[in-house]
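REQUEST ID: PR-0412
SUBMITTED BY: lab tech R.K.
PRIORITY: routine
TASK: structure prediction, single protein chain
INPUT:
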Amino acid sequence: MKNRLMPELLKKGGFTLLELLIVMIIIGLLAALIGPKMIGRVGESRQTVAKQQIEGFSSALEMYKLDTTKYPTQEQGLEALVAEPQGTVNWKGPYLKKKFVPKDPWGNNYVYVYPGEHGDYDILSYGADGNTGGDDEDKDVASWE
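STATUS: complete
OUTPUT:
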């Protein structure tokens, strides 16, 4: 006994407007639930990138010191890692892979302090707000933490 409905169902193609609306509502609900959680991760990932860049600067500064016997002065700043400062002996840079000092993930310059208050030198980013202190994405990222 053949099912006479089967060929009829196979001929019918596509989706109805109601089916499309239901799928769109489901996608909208998922986006509403997942979206805010993902946006919160952006700030967290920028903090992580800043920490990694500071670690890279620290490694480059140690190589700089091995070659020149001292860290760059505060006036020379992190630029001394990519361009030879005047009067420096045995500079064998650039000490960063890129031929420039990158900005922090929020587009601000890193702050280099020499001599540092927390170590030989201090490197920090003031976070999203560009000011000292703050919470979450505004929190400072520093080489001594």
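NOTES: The CA atoms of residues 48 and 144 lie 15 Å apart.
REVIEWED BY: pending
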